[in-house]
Amino acid sequence: MWREIDVVINSAATTRFDERYDVAVDINVFGALHILNFAKNCVNIKVLLHISTAFVCSEEEGLASEKPFDMRETLGGVSSYLDINIEKKFVDERLRELQNENARTEAIRSAMKDLGIQRARLHGWPNTYVFTKAMGEMVLEQFKEKLKVVIVRPTIVTSTFKDPFPGWIQGVRTIDSFLVAYGKGKLKFVLGDPKSILDLIPGDMVVNCILVAIVAHADQSCGHHIYHVGSSRRNPLKFSDVHEMFLSYFIKNPWVNDRGKPVRVNKCKVLSSMDSFNKYIATRYLPFLKILKLANTLSCHHFEATYIGAKRKVNLVTRLAEMYGRYVFSKVIFDDTNTQKLQVMAGEVDAEMFNFDPRSIQWKDYLMNIHIPGAIKHLF
User: Fold this and answer.
1) What is the dihedral of CA 16, 17, 18, 21, to 10 degrees?
2) pTM
3) Domain extent for 368
């Protein structure tokens, strides 16, 4: 096998924003290192292609460049000292503490999730996912030696544009969580700046970019090796436009629930800042929680399950808002200069077959006729 393999693609990752820190470090950081060491043992290896995410950049505004991370690099001007071995040590020590305390499985899981968010924010990243993916890139850059390593950074990956057929998607992620909740009539408000850009890219375009990047780097030396695959620079899509298209679709094509009844949707209230979100929660939900808590106490905990469930939902919504807030208010544009050079190369072979140019996407047609129907078919 060592002599037969000439290309290695690493797409393995945990993508939960608030994944357990021990799990995320093992998979996204040391998993990448293990793949690198495997590739080095392949005697005829030409290239290792690693799939990351454009959001490792995590800038809040401006142009995010296609450039590699330096080992120990932090974001946002923070002065913390980032050392991957120290991060691993933090994980191991915290796990030992919890085990010595005979902590239950749920308590360990919660503590590991909290630790990931804490460490990410300490070093300038908004969540565990992008922080550990950034560290994964760092170890590849640090230890690649003479091996050609290519890093592809997609933005928000959506259903296929064309191949293997339009609208194929698997798993509810990011924008589709919003779509599913909206279509099922469960969404009362949306968090986001109407003017912000949602950087979407169909999954098959990401695959096309990967294939072209492998060919480009396997047989020749390219000066650049980081590729952003997204749409914000060349075909930007506003948050407000996505909201309007979702509403328009479900008004014309209401989802039919298990009881055979069409679900009516209304335009959601838009909370355009974290302040407006906090005020909304404080006025709409916290008073109800206080009343429910009082009723539960006076009734000798008769409403215990109801109170705990309601409190858990409010805490979950608040946690999600804190994690996703960076993205729904983002003003960042992802530079794709390197990626466009790849597209030119693809055009010399077959521009249509290997298309990953976001300018070819008509957003209204794609969302209304491909993505939303595909999501309903595969996710609802």
Assistant:
1) 80
2) 0.91
3) 156-198+234-331+361-379
- Do 69 and 165 have their domain in common? no
The segments of the chain whose pLDDT lies below 70 read: 221-223
Residue 262 lies in a domain: yes
Residue 241 confidence (pLDDT)? 95
- Residue 364's alpha-carbon distances to 164, 243, 251, 254, 372, in angstroms, are 21, 12, 16, 18, 11
Query: Residue 25 corresponds to which amino acid?
Result: V
Tell me: do 110 and 241 sit in the same domain: no
Position 250, amino acid: F
Question: Which of 157, 132, 137, 117 has the alpha carbon at shortest distance from 24?
Answer: 132
Output the DSSP codes for 332-355: EEE--HHHHHHHHHHHHHHTTTT-
Q: What pLDDT digit, counting tens, does each position of 346-367 carry?
A: 888 887 899 999 999 999 999 9
Spot the catalytic one: 113, 133, 307, 366.
133
Q: Of 129, 182, 227, 366, which one is the catalytic site residue?
A: 129
> Is 366 among the residues known to form the active site?
no
Q: Is 182 a catalytic residue?
A: no
